[in-house]
Known about the structure:
GO molecular function: aminopeptidase activity; initiator methionyl aminopeptidase activity; metal ion binding; metalloaminopeptidase activity; metalloexopeptidase activity
Helix content: 25-40%
Number of strands: 18
CATH superfamily of the largest domain: Creatinase/methionine aminopeptidase superfamily
Region (Disordered): 1-62
Amino acid sequence: MAAVLTESKEACLAEEKQDEEIDENDEVAENTATKKKKKKKKKKKAQNGAPKIQTDPPTIPISELFPNKNFPEGEICHYKDDNLWRETNEEKRALDRMHADLYAEIREAAEVHRQVRKYVQGYIKPGMTMIEICERLEEAGRKLIKADKLNAGLAFPTGCSLNHCAAHYTPNAGDKTVLSYDDVCKIDFGTHINGRIVDCAFTVAFNPKYDNLLAAVKDATNTGIRESGIDARLCDVGEAIQETMESYEVELDGKTYKVKPIRNLNGHSIGTYRIHAGKTVPIVKGGEATKMEEGEFFAIETFGSTGKGVVHDDMECSHYMKNYEAGHIPLRVPRAKQLLNVINENFGTLAFCRRWLDRLGQTKYLLALKNLCDSGIVDAYPPLCDIKGCYTAQYEHTILLRPTVKEVISRGEDY
Length: 415
């Protein structure tokens, strides 16, 4: 009996131990499962908090891609030797920090420009109508900048000037012009946040015979950027641009042309809601000796031509802009008053085109628009053309003369 009782006791103890081990295993399994659940939750949270990635075609506003407003800087350039002290001067660095909000606005507009032009460079091709090219660009631009009348949007109509036409052409409704393989097309568009404008342009050519023309103008624009800076004289910038551009030649159909700067086109200072703020940056020698100043924005743009190197008004007008200096001018035509209200509400002193008035539902407005132009309230800007049969190219960047450094706001990987 004693032996039987001992065995039973040992059996019971073994059974209890086994039960304890099972309980421990269950507890471990339960804890592991809980940890896995927690890990899964953490993973899910990380996915939800991940930064957004731009779609193709682009549709996500830049402000959502950079919720902390840390928008990418442009290219940072050092000033010349006599202004190098600015980089380490505490007072100038403090001024830089004071303008952080302004820099954020202009950099957001610049990032919109970069992403939109990358999109354009991907879809533009021979066979497309000029209207389709412009409207796709403008649709993407409005989405990325979250267009809101005068608070944010496109700063001026999309220029898509072809061949001998150097600037200020955008198609009006009904224009059936089609882009061809042998065309040289200047894509010039602007973006703005609270009136802080980024003005930037590039040239598209599919036929490699134009490569040297494009290279000349791009090099000239980069020369202008390099020579610009606080205390730089505008005439000196223009002279350097001309020297660079005229060092290039281009051979077209067996004939060699010297690339000429278009002497009556130029870069310009940019103000808030004002694309041309008063100072001009020539692209030939002999300009004014006026100096660039700290805190100024400039559009450094150059135009090269195989023609005469001079442009004149030609073709049907599409670009208009309210005169920045015009005060109150009484209007007697009710339709002109109504159209002016639409312009004030949607564009202010920024440039606009007839397609944009169409988009806002305006109809039969040409007489009213003419009345505003005749009254001096609105100025017309017809296309600017060199001689027929020649080819023109354009490159442009917006720069900011910060207290410490020069920032090429619109610089991108493309140019």
